[in-house]
Design a protein that fits this description.
Elements (H helix, E strand, L loop, with lengths): L1 H18 L23 E4 L1 E3 L8 E8 L2 E2 L11 E3 L2 E11 L2 E11 L4 E9 L8 E8 L10 E4 L1 E2 L13
Parallel strand pairs: 1-8
Antiparallel strand pairs: 1-5, 2-3, 3-4, 3-6, 6-7, 7-11, 8-9, 9-10
Length: 169
């Protein structure tokens, strides 16, 4: 009987393991892959990573996509430069801090050899604890806004409850 159960469990495990597969790779035309060498007079955009305090997670603002094309590894390296062609772009920017996040789409015109950073401000109140995010692109040398300011609500990622079994007599 135990051999039959072991064989059935092994078969079930093999069946379920075969159902799990990695997603197909993203097509290259959907990935933003411009480098400093591939652009004449590139503009540079750098994300933000701020250490808020010992008790809170870092604030991250980074470019998630440019003109609908995904920018890889921005979450891991938000302050690495992103090189842009001079001209008009639509930037998808993400804000994260622990379990809170926000996405903003922002139109932006990059100047040749421009140096830009992402400016942001969170606004919350007693009645709206997660609050709202104000986000813009600013000139790195002057601090002046180089785009309009976008405002969006901040979302809270729901986590699963943790159940701890308690043994009683």
């Amino acid at each position: 009987m135990n051999k039959i159960k072991a064989a059935l469990m092994t078969g079930l495990l093999c069946l379920l393991a075969g159902c799990v597969s990695l997603p197909p790779p993203m097509p290259p035309e959907l990935i933003y892959s411009k480098t400093e060498q591939s652009i004449q007079n590139p503009a540079v955009l750098i994300g933000v990573k701020e250490d808020t305090s010992f008790f809170l997670a870092d604030e991250l603002c980074y470019v998630e996509n440019i003109d609908g094309r995904v920018v890889n590894d921005r979450h891991k390296n938000p302050t690495d430069p992103v090189f842009l062609d001079p001209g008009s772009h639509v930037l998808g920017i993400k804000f994260e801090q622990g379990h809170t996040y926000a996405h903003i789409t922002l139109p932006f015109v990059a100047a040749p050899k421009g140096q830009y950073t992402i400016g942001h401000r969170t606004v919350s109140s007693f009645w709206d604890p997660p609050g709202h995010l104000q986000l813009w692109i600013q000139d790195a040398s002057t601090g002046q806004e180089a785009s309009s300011t976008a405002v969006t609500p901040i979302s809270v990622q729901q986590s699963s409850p943790i159940f701890i079994p308690i043994m009683t007599k």
